[in-house]
Design a protein that fits this description.
This protein is α+β, with helices and mostly antiparallel strands and 253 residues long. Helix content is 36%, strand content 25%. Strands 2, 3, 5, 6, 7, 10 and 12 form a seven-stranded antiparallel beta sheet that branches. A three-stranded antiparallel beta sheet has the order 9-8-11, with no helix packed on it.
């Protein structure tokens, strides 16, 4: 009898922990959204209104059944070979040039490590990439979500990353919290160092060696890093999909 009661208590505790973690992630996303709106110079009352609306949208999607990828036949992380053709990569590079010119506020911003040797340009800003490169974006998102088993996914971000000597992404527990699927496509190979790694829940580190045009697809909650660039320049396209509303703001907070 006591064993059965303990089992129930353990189940309830696990459920409580899961719900608590979901609420924590939602509040982190709302805070990020608030920072973006403040950067845009919106009135405080308007910011509060939009944050309430955003939280409501997130709570609605969080109530959906757990979304999973069929990893039995298609394990993650997964290499998507030659996802981007030379023409596709040229379009991405041109989009980065346009966005740096169109949204000068982003120039010189670093990544989450605040490193000047790691510059990010947000191609989804104001819906630009989906509007001007919709066919290419659909090609990418269709490949990402091919084996998705869950609620509809939308684009959370499309980012152009440039790592130069001394740059990298080296954080003990770096994850794309709140997203469902993440993709990193290599756009250049004229560099040394800069290894892309993922770490599974068992602590096993996998080092990926994509060719230019290859993408590494992984569950967004997977720990991932890029080792320090020793020389040259590493360029990559990063796309994240999630079950929240489509994003048109930066992800620099």
């Amino acid at each position: 009898m006591r064993a059965a009661r303990d089992a129930i208590d353990a189940t309830q505790m696990a459920q409580w922990q899961q719900e608590h973690e979901a609420k924590r992630r939602i509040e982190a996303l709302v805070f990020e959204h608030r920072c973006e709106l403040e950067d845009d110079g919106l009135d405080p009352d308007e910011i509060d209104r939009r944050c309430v609306e955003f939280r409501s949208q997130l709570n609605t999607t969080a109530a959906a059944p757990p979304a999973v990828v069929d990893e039995v036949s298609q394990p993650l992380p997964r290499l998507l070979e030659q996802l981007l053709s030379p023409d596709d990569r040229a379009a991405v590079e041109q989009a980065a040039v346009v966005c740096r010119r169109r949204y000068p506020r982003l120039n010189g911003e670093g990544d989450v490590t605040a490193s000047p040797a790691h510059a990010i340009t947000y191609l989804h800003r104001d819906g630009y990439f989906g509007r001007d490169h919709g066919v290419l974006l659909k090609k990418i998102t269709d490949a990402m979500a091919r084996d998705w088993r869950g609620p509809p996914l939308t684009v959370r971000c499309v980012e152009h990353h440039v790592y130069t000597e001394g740059g990298g992404l080296i954080l003990e527990d770096h994850r794309d919290i709140g997203s469902s699927l993440s993709l990193s496509v290599l756009l250049s190979d004229e560099y040394s160092g800069g290894a892309f790694t993922t770490t599974n829940e068992a602590g096993v580190v996998l080092t990926h060696a994509p060719r230019v045009g290859d993408g590494v697809l992984f569950a967004s909650e997977t720990v991932h890093n890029v080792s320090t660039i020793e020389s040259g320049e590493r360029r990559a396209l990063v796309v994240e999909l999630w079950t929240g509303p489509a994003t048109t703001h930066d992800r620099s907070k």
